[in-house]
Specification:
alpha+beta; 10 helices; 8 strands; Beta-Lactamase; two-stranded antiparallel sheet; single chain; six-stranded antiparallel beta sheet; about 20% strand; Arc Repressor Mutant, subunit A; globular
C-alpha cells in the first residue's frame, strides 16, 4: 500500500483536470505493484467516473498501462521516459552500439535494438546496411508480438498466465505466412525458450526475415532484444539461421556490459 494522496482543495490557479490526472500519476508511481481502480478511488477520493476517464486518458497516451492479469495500473513507457530525462533507452543504446555495429559489419544487414512497449515492441536503435535495398526505418514504430522475432521473445519471457491471457485475443494475420493459431504459437514459444533465440520468416512482412536474441538485466529479466533482419531474397532462412550463434553472442555481450 502506498501513502494516501490528498487533493489540495486550497491550491489556486490550477487546471483541475490536469491536477487530478497528475495526482493519479503520482499515486501509481509510488506503488510497488499495479494498483486497482478501487484502491485509486479510495486513496484519492475521486469519484469512479472521473477516475476512470482520467486513467483511460493517461493509458491512451502511454503514461500508464494496465496489467493483464490483475487489471491494475502501473507506469507506462512515456512516464518512464519523462522521469529519466534523456531516457534509460539512450543509455542502453550507447552501451549497445559498439556490439550492434560489429554485428552489422559482419552480417551486412539491418541490425536493431528494441524494447517492450505495452503489448508490442519498439526499436530504439537501427543500423542499416550499405545496400540500396534495405528495410524501412523501424525506430519508434510499435510492432506486434506474435509475428516478429523480438515480439516472440517477449512472449517467451511472460509467465504462463500472462501468455495465456495474451493468446485469448485475436492475432492479426499480416501475411499468408503469419501464424495466428494460439496453440501453434505456444509450441513455437516453447522451442524459443530452449534454444534462446526467435525467428520470423515472412510473417510480419512478406519480403522480410528476421532473428532476435534477448538482453537480460542482472536478475535475468529480459529487458531488450538484438535483431538481425533483411530482405528474404538476400537473407533466406538457411542463411539467417546460420547467424543465430553470432546474434546470441552479441546479445550476451551487451548483457555483460550493462551489468558490469
Amino acid at each position: 500500500m502506498v501513502n494516501k494522496i490528498e487533493i489540495d482543495q486550497k491550491a489556486d490557479g490550477l487546471v483541475q483536470t490536469l491536477d487530478k490526472a497528475l495526482i493519479l500519476l503520482k499515486y501509481i508511481a509510488k506503488a510497488n505493484d499495479p494498483v486497482s481502480l478501487t484502491d485509486i478511488i479510495n486513496e484519492t477520493h475521486l469519484n469512479r467516473t472521473t477516475a476512470w476517464r482520467l486513467l483511460y486518458t493517461l493509458e491512451y497516451h502511454g503514461f500508464i498501462e494496465r496489467e493483464q492479469l490483475t487489471k491494475g495500473y502501473r507506469l507506462g513507457f512515456w512516464a518512464t521516459k519523462l522521469s529519466l530525462g534523456t531516457s534509460r533507452n539512450d543509455w542502453l543504446v550507447r552501451q549497445a552500439r559498439p556490439s550492434l555495429e560489429r554485428l552489422a559489419q559482419v552480417s551486412q544487414e539491418t541490425v536493431m535494438l528494441s524494447v517492450a512497449y505495452n503489448y508490442g515492441v519498439v526499436a530504439i536503435d537501427q543500423i542499416d546496411p550499405p545496400h540500396h535495398v534495405r528495410l524501412v526505418d523501424y525506430v519508434n514504430m510499435v510492432l506486434p508480438l506474435h509475428c516478429t522475432s523480438n515480439g516472440k521473445l517477449l512472449l517467451a519471457s511472460l509467465s504462463e498466465i500472462e501468455l495465456n491471457n495474451f493468446l485469448k485475443h485475436p492475432m492479426e494475420k499480416r501475411t499468408a505466412w503469419t501464424n495466428s493459431d494460439p496453440e501453434i504459437l505456444k509450441l513455437e514459444i516453447e522451442k524459443i525458450k530452449h534454444r534462446g533465440f526467435a525467428t520470423s520468416y515472412l510473417e510480419f512482412d512478406e519480403s522480410e526475415n528476421g532473428l532476435s536474441a534477448p538482453v537480460h538485466d542482472v536478475h535475468g529479466n529480459t529487458i531488450a532484444f538484438v535483431s538481425l533482419s533483411g530482405p528474404s531474397f538476400r537473407l533466406p532462412k538457411d542463411l539467417i539461421d546460420s547467424f543465430a550463434p553470432l546474434v546470441i553472442e552479441i546479445a550476451n555481450e551487451i548483457t555483460n556490459k550493462i551489468n558490469d
